[in-house]
Structure to design on (713 residues):
């Protein structure tokens, strides 16, 4: 296809674009990989859920029928209130009871505020906080009291409740209600009394305490035997500001210590249970042991992952892969998959009670599971609860929790590797296709250019295509093109020389015929015979004219290469030719209209005159007698435009593009006396192209005639 026609056809997708579009189906592979990893994630989550259930079942089974861990006396049927109950944490090391808070600073026990009593004039003036924990068979407690006016016990007064003091109320494992009071005359060992009644007290040595004065208040540190503490325990701090009246100005307490049923419940985590669940636990899992009142008996493990440690033995390739994945792959994956977040907030380790659907199901005797979001919605926690049995009675539950972060991380890393591998294959495949398509496109374009350059715009074969040695279909196509063009070149060469050969070969027979006719003229012939002689002479004349015109086009083509160029005024040549046409064709009116100035052209004025003769002859033949034939010469930029206009029949639409080809004529019948072979306008085109110009023809408006235009530089 010629270049002009390709441009007119608009932009169309090339071979490379089509191959890229065909290769885009490979993008479905990462999508299928995404669905595969999603299915793998569901499978892993199901496996994780089964693992959590199995752990809960294993821990629950290990705690079954162990009354030493779930004593019936510690399963309380009464209502519980978190603000008055006491949770006693296990201490990793014992505490030295010396009235100093240094030991407690190293213990994993957070200080808790003592609740304020009613009727206090200023809760900021008198306040306290405490810490309590268990180690071995002893319970330790530290009270830090803020009291701007400390009233110590007066040794001259033996009555009860005559100074600032700490009251301890306890229900023993034997269900006995006991009340103790601790006071002091100064820093040192506190005096401990067992209150028999409001008016009677006796010294008691089961509780050991130290009283120490500090700026702005005092500290009380004490040790209680574990055997003394049963299901209930409470502390109260009594503040007396007036040593004369000895009336309590304020009392703050963990619970009401005046009666057995008003004390807060005690939760003492079992170290045996904690040790057991630690051994049976899973990595990245948190295990809770609860009693029937939803209170935490033991807790082990953490949901948070330990800080990642760099592998010192990691190879260079692995480090480069991690860096590339972090910079390129993971930002893309975050658009479809979220990264697990370890910076989430969940249940604090010292939580007193736990609630949940799975816990209720476990305490009802069945295994329960639940999936929940953390309070900050940054992680998903999978939990399973299993009942703990004592004979045929549920005495507690085991709750095992794990986040899905490990599964999400495994999913992301698996898809990351899969995605990276697919992208490498995809990019490599696309690059290979592009290289292949580019090479194929270049070969096709080279073949196209060679084919186009082998034939000029007029259909003349100028050369052939260099056949490719490639063994593929494209190489076979190029060899076929080369063979076709070679045969076509031979045939067109034969046609181009046919006119000259015919003219040369027939000139001698024509001369013989003409001499014979001349001899016949010298002989006396009847009148009817002379008619045939005249007809023979006319036919011979026509045949001679045909040979002359055929030779004219051939001679012109051969002589163009040797014609010398010169600079001449086109205006003068056209003006002289038009003057000659007025004399040669008196039946037509010739008009010449030229622009101002000279029209300098570099070429051959004789050839231009020959071109004008053909245009004038064509205009005369297709115009009516008495009509006007107009010659116009105008300057358009660097081009001289010569126009020849004649009135007459319009050009057929299907012939306008072929009008200037060799041996093409639009005459339906002879319009003059001589024969017409279609060489006239072909000569016009040859002369115009020789001068670097072009020629075209078009119908006048309304179909009233034809306009020929020749543009010369």
């Amino acid at each position: 296809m010629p270049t002009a026609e390709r441009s007119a056809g608009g932009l169309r997708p090339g071979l490379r674009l089509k191959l890229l579009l065909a290769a885009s189906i490979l993008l479905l592979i990462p999508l299928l990989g995404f669905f595969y990893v999603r299915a793998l994630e569901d499978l892993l989550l199901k496996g994780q859920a089964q693992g959590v259930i199995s752990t809960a079942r294993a821990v629950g089974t290990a705690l079954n029928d162990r009354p030493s861990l779930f004593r019936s006396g510690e399963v309380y049927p009464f209502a519980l209130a978190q603000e008055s109950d006491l949770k006693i944490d296990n201490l990793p090391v014992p505490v030295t009871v010396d009235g100093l808070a240094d030991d407690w600073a190293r213990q994993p026990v957070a200080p808790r505020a003592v609740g304020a009593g009613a009727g206090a004039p200023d809760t900021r003036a008198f306040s306290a906080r405490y810490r309590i924990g268990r180690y071995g068979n002893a319970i330790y407690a530290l009270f830090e009291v803020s009291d701007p006016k400390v009233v110590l016990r007066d040794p001259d007064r033996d009555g009860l409740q005559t100074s600032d003091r700490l009251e301890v109320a306890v229900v023993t494992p034997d269900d006995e209600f006991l009340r103790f009071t601790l006071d002091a005359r100064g820093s040192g060992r506190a005096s401990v009394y067992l209150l028999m009644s409001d008016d009677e007290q006796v010294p008691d040595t089961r509780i050991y305490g130290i009283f120490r004065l500090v700026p702005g208040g005092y500290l009380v540190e004490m040790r209680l035997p574990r055997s003394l503490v049963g299901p209930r325990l409470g502390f109260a701090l009594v503040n007396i500001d007036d040593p004369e009246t000895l009336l309590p100005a304020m009392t703050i307490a963990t619970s009401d210590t005046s009666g057995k049923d008003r004390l807060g419940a005690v939760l003492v985590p079992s170290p045996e249970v904690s040790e057991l669940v630690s051994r049976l636990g899973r990595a990245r899992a948190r295990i809770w042991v609860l009693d029937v009142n939803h209170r935490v008996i033991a807790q082990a493990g953490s949901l948070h992952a330990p800080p990642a440690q760099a592998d010192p033995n990691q190879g260079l390739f692995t480090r480069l892969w991690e860096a590339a994945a972090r910079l390129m792959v993971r930002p893309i994956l975050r658009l479809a998959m979220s990264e697990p977040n370890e910076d989430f907030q969940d249940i604090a380790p010292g939580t007193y009670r736990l609630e949940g659907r799975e816990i209720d199901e476990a305490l009802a005797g069945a295994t329960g599971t639940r999936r929940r979001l953390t309070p900050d919605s940054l992680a998903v926690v999978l939990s399973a609860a299993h009942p703990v049995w004592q004979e045929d009675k549920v005495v507690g539950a085991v709750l095992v929790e794990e986040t899905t972060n490990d599964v999400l991380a495994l999913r992301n890393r698996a898809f990351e590797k899969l995605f990276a591998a697919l992208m490498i294959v995809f990019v490599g495949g696309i690059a290979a296709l592009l290289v292949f398509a580019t090479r194929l496109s270049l070969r096709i374009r080279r073949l196209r250019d060679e084919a186009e350059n082998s034939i000029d715009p007029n259909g003349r074969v100028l050369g052939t295509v260099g056949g490719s040695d490639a063994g593929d279909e494209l190489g076979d196509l190029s060899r076929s093109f080369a063979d076709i063009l070679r045969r076509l070149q031979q045939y067109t060469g034969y046609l181009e020389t046919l006119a000259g050969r015919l003219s040369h070969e027939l000139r001698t027979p024509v001369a013989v015929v003409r001499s014979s006719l001349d001899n016949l003229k010298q002989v006396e012939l009847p009148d009817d015979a002379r008619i045939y002689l005249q007809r023979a002479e006319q036919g011979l004349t026509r045949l001679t004219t045909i040979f002359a015109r055929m030779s004219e086009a051939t001679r012109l083509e051969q002589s163009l290469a040797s014609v010398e160029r010169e600079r001449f005024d086109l205006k003068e040549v056209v003006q002289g030719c038009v003057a000659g046409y007025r004399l040669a064709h008196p039946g037509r009116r010739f008009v010449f209209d030229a622009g101002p100035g000279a029209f300098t052209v570099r070429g051959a004025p004789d050839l231009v005159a020959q071109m004008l003769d053909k245009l004038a002859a064509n205009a005369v033949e297709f115009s009516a007698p008495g009509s006007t034939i107009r010659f116009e010469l105008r300057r358009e930029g660097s081009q001289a435009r010569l126009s020849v206009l004649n009135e007459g029949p319009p050009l057929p639409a299907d012939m306008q593009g072929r009008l200037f080809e060799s041996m093409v004529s639009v005459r339906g019948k002879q319009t003059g006396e001589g024969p017409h072979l279609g060489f006239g306008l072909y000569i016009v085109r040859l002369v115009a192209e020789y001068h670097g110009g072009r020629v075209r023809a078009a119908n006048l408006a309304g179909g009233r005639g034809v306009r020929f235009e020749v543009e010369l530089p």
The chain has a mean pLDDT of 77. The radius of gyration is 59 Å. The first helix runs from residue 3 to 8. The first strand starts at residue 86 and ends at 87.
